[in-house]
Write a structure and sequence with these properties.
This protein is an alpha+beta fold and about 290 residues long. It contains five helices and 15 strands. The two termini are about 20 Å apart.
Length: about 290
């Protein structure tokens, strides 16, 4: 079982995985999303994790293939060091253009704001993604065939911050309270913010898919679904020019909708440079254990 704390010997395995992935297209039958044992997910990592934002939509016939690529990278290579957010935004996430079967609204204010900022759905189209919101080979918005190499590069970046998340879910009020502590591991320059959001696995809803008969999978299982931000579209400022060893604590609350199953949800929190938007660390914790 792959644990959250990795030895230095794991880094050659990352590089080997990148080489293997760069040569092999992911073909059916796909690994089942979530087949990695997630029981070991626990925030407070002392290595650099990587954030993959998969910009998607239920009307996009090519998006399931991108989701399979993301899960392949997570389940086979990076495990809990890769954290995925599936951001439904733009035309292909519309509830108006694909018929009554696609009436469920996956859009979120934060996801739409990010999509507009990076012009993903309007300029690049779906599926595309961001890896730690940094450029790879002079490109910010990356196609799925670039994700593996970009993630491998970011996984070798310096460990600059530790994020610890403590969740308390109140079943009676369907309210989640999260306490998030960020501990900087290096002296850094610039201003840094934290953003906390909810993602959900195992949500069944129709999806356009070029690989199924008729082009629609009516029982598609969506994973890593962005459900909403706990602290605004662009998070909240932590500090400027943080010193090594400095620690900052934030607390947030959010009310769960009826179709958000708390046992399938996680809090994903990431710290980023406010000027460049580059993510220096991301971590996650289950809403309910």
């Amino acid at each position: 079982m792959i644990m959250k704390n990795f030895k230095i010997l794991f880094f050659p395995l990352i590089l080997l995985g990148i080489l293997i992935y760069s040569c092999d297209k992911v073909e059916p039958p796909y690994l089942k999303p979530g087949s990695v044992d997630t029981s070991e997910i626990k925030s407070g990592d002392t290595v650099k994790n990587v954030l993959l934002e998969d910009y998607t939509g239920h009307g996009c016939v090519n998006c399931p293939s991108a989701a399979h690529t993301a899960h392949y990278l997570q389940d086979s290579i990076y495990h809990q060091r890769l954290i995925i957010i599936a951001v439904h935004a733009g035309y292909f996430a519309s509830t108006q253009f694909f018929g009554d079967l696609f009436s469920y609204d996956f859009n979120t204010p934060a996801g739409t704001a990010w999509d507009n900022y990076y012009q993903i759905s309007t300029t690049y189209g779906n599926p595309n993604g961001l890896v730690d919101r940094v450029e790879y080979e002079s490109k910010m918005v990356l196609g799925k065939d670039q994700w593996g190499s970009a993630i491998g590069e970011q996984a070798l970046a310096d460990f600059q911050a530790k994020i610890t998340i403590e969740n308390n879910y109140n079943t009676g009020s369907n309210t989640l309270n999260s306490n998030i502590v960020t501990e900087f591991q290096e002296n850094l320059t610039g201003s840094y913010s934290i953003l906390a959001c909810i993602v959900q696995d195992h949500f069944e809803s129709p999806q356009k898919d070029e690989d199924v008969d008729g082009g629609t999978d009516s029982t598609y299982i969506h994973n890593n679904v962005m459900r909403g931000s706990m602290n605004g579209d662009w998070g909240e400022n932590l500090t400027s020019d943080p010193a090594e060893g400095s620690s900052y604590e934030k607390s947030y609350s959010i009310n769960f909708h009826d179709d958000w199953k708390p046992e399938d949800c996680r809090v994903v929190a990431f710290v980023f440079n406010e000027e460049t938007k580059a993510v220096i660390q991301v971590d996650e914790e289950w809403v309910k254990k």
